[in-house]
Specification:
The chain is of the alpha+beta class. It contains three helices and eight strands; from the N terminus they run βαβββαβββαβ. It starts with 9 loop residues before the first strand and ends with a strand.
């Protein structure tokens, strides 16, 4: 499979750059991780597609309002490991599609995406992200011009 069409709910293998790493001047993510597309828009000035992805991590959130747990059956459906994981909703990476940081899934020849999360989980993530935004915002890290 070639680079997929960007669609909300699609989980990618992505070199995610945490916001605190970006603030320290880093430009590359230290680890490839599953990340879900939560926003897709077209930039008016040049017609480029812009997406925002949220990271999926094994680290349990200190504040449960800042993450949504990924159910085991969803992780199995996507082909992810069986450790507990959370989608972080208080920060994301924004980039022009397809960007430089898409990575092939380990062990695949040409796959960059694990698949789609179910709509019910996607909307739970969006609602949690909106709640964080209402309380002060979601940190967006730009990854390319």
């Amino acid at each position: 499979m070639a680079i997929p069409t960007p669609e909300v709910g699609l989980v990618l293998n992505y070199a995610y750059l945490w916001h605190d790493e970006h603030r320290r001047g880093l430009e590359e993510g230290r680890k490839n991780r599953p990340s879900v597309i939560v926003l897709k828009t077209m930039r008016a000035k040049d017609g480029e597609t812009i997406v925002m992805v949220l990271p999926i991590t094994h680290s349990a959130p200190i504040n449960p309002e800042l993450a949504v747990e990924t159910p085991a059956r969803v992780k199995a459906h996507l082909g992810l490991d069986d450790e507990r994981s959370w989608v972080v909703v208080d920060e994301g990476n924004q980039f022009v599609w397809p960007g430089y940081d898409l990575r092939k899934i380990p062990g695949s020849v040409d796959d960059y995406a694990y698949g789609f999360i179910p709509p019910k989980l996607f909307w739970k993530i969006i609602e949690a992200m909106k709640a964080v935004h209402a309380k002060g915002g979601v940190k967006s890290t730009p990854r390319n011009p």
